Amino acid sequence: MSQPVLICRPGERGEALAAALRERGENVESLNVMQLEALPETPEMRRIWLDIDQYHKIIVISPFAATCLSEALDRFWPQLPIGIDYYSVGSATAATLYDQLGVRVHVPDLSAGEDTSEALLALASLQQLAHQRILLVAGEGGRPLLAETLAERGALVTRAAVYRRRFQPLAPTLQTRLSSGNYRALIVTSSELLEHLAKWCNQAALNQPLIVSSRRLATLAGILGFCDLKVASGATPAALIAALETCDPQGADVDQGTY
């Protein structure tokens, strides 16, 4: 059997990526090192949901955040308030919002080349934000770039953390595969996951192809020591598969390097 493509993506998005790769005949192994867990609803969060009609714009960071938002609004708003503009960094989040809430969603322009916070912030409708109330729906932690930039542009920003990331160690067999570099390529779409996986990457792994979903992730990967970087045009299965196609079909040569 050919060397596997290793993917590191939790939940339904990981399952969708694995299925798309297998449809192309790829051998796939999932590195299940992170789970997403919805946070208990707090009184502060409940106030946000009850006052949702007070926001001019809602920006949702991930598909899981979109699901958490949808479940909350279903409880408090039998009919969605009108006049709110919805935004997301990526098309998968936009699709989740449309499927679950029936709302149209602003996403980065395709000409931006990738789905990132920076690309979202380049939208014309997010330039002049004086006195506009904006809700960011996201997980715990993460980069403050969006909130800081929106505030600099005049917005009144509220951040709702609706889920947490729970990390766990790799299974021993997958630790061995990763550290030995015995795979065709590794696909990672989050900085937290990349930093977590780097703990098990020796020189053999660092020399293997790493596919990331943005230039920002590529910069982090370079700092962590990864040598063979492929930057996809986004985090969709199609974009990641297109980047995989630029890799050697047989995988890179495993080189243990020097220490």
From TrEMBL:
It catalyses: hydroxymethylbilane = uroporphyrinogen III + H2O. One of its GO terms (biological process) is uroporphyrinogen III biosynthetic process. It is an enzyme of class 4 (lyase). This is Uroporphyrinogen-III synthase. One of its GO terms (molecular function) is uroporphyrinogen-III synthase activity. Belongs to the uroporphyrinogen-III synthase family. Pfam families: HEM4. The lineage of its organism: Bacteria, Pseudomonadati, Pseudomonadota, Gammaproteobacteria, Oceanospirillales. Catalyzes cyclization of the linear tetrapyrrole, hydroxymethylbilane, to the macrocyclic uroporphyrinogen III.
